[in-house]
Amino acid sequence: MAQPSTPGVAGQSIFGGAGPSGSSNSLLSGGGTLTPGSAASSNNTFLMPNSPVKGRNSHDGYRPKVTRTLGQRPACLVNASVTYCGNNQIYAFGGFDQYTDEVYNHVLKLDMVSHQWSLVDNYGDIPGVRMGHTATLYQGDKLLIFGGENEHRTYLSDLIVFDLKTAHWTQPAVSGTIPKGRARHAAVLHDDKLFVVGGITGHNNYVLDDICYLDLKTFTWSRAWRFVGRFDHSAYLWGDRVWVFGGLSEDMDKIGDIWWLDLKGSPAFDTAPMFGSMDRQSGSSRMSGSSRSSYAMAPPPPIGGSGYAANSGSAQVNPPSFQLTSSPPLAPGTISSLKFVSGPNIPSQGSGMHFHVYTSGTLLDFVTPAATITPQDCSLSSLELDTLRWQKLAEGRDIFKQGYRWHYCTMNEDGTKAWLLGCPTDPTATDLGPGGFEEYLR
User: What are the boundaries of the region Disordered (predicted)?
Assistant: First the structure.
């Protein structure tokens, strides 16, 4: 998410039941509301009630409102996590500065009412700097931060919990088979279990094809199973299945197929994992363990235009090291996949900047403006997971205002509104000072 002087946010309202990184000065907010078809509708199509009637020239019903944000301007962050956490608040954590490569562990908050960014004072077991991690909202008031890589490009496998009410970090003692350290993976919640899928790891950016979960009632990790290999993808839970869509392959190709794993009826997913323990405090394990990390966070001195400095001096004990040997066993439960080749309603994953969010059995695909495509190629499409059929909801020119690039996407807990965060492509079109364009979240 990134934009000049005062961040901007563009928001698109959508109907229903998680994208790239950063902190920014620009937000998208607003737009038409998508509502489901009538109960008698066989395909549960989405309608935009205030969309223009055919023959009319107005397209305002499709177009979200672009809003500048104010306050403490974020840096031009890449691979941060951006999460809507209820109460009209979006939290951004971590990431690295695109221009300095400094890695951060700051917590930033955007108030969606005042459109103000602020740097959050936080306490406790403050995690080390990281990027490419996941942040998952749990029980409405906690963020579960897992994995990522630090300033030394070491892949992490730790879990840290941020209490949104107290701004306090805790690092629970976990047991079970600690998963491989990873970044640019996906995480999704199901029945008090945090499922982790894929990502990259190792010195050669090895692409992982595994799935495992952390039982949040006992903080016990399951073993890892083989599922599907990819990174920079997204994962969703619908109909007792874990769905995986998008991302990149080992060959760095953008992937347009969808995979799903049935969880229902598999004892491995229904019961608490029972494996050898690893106590982070004692360090005893079958694997090479590390003692519980000790974190320190110095007050960030303001530098440059971003308003804060990278906290690269924080201590981070490396997680257990792993040897990438044989693949894990195939995941229990039925594994299925479907590849979308081409069609008038299928958004091509190979071009443009895509954001995927999930809402009530439907995957939404935002194809946003990018240097490689024209505004006409942008779109908003939906994939119904029950029927696996794509439907184009709006053309790009109808929903995306020219002159912006969008870098992050997040959705509210009801699945009724999504926000894109980004920056203008022409810094001279804003009231920024010299170089101001480079100071914002990306």
Answer: 39-66, 274-296
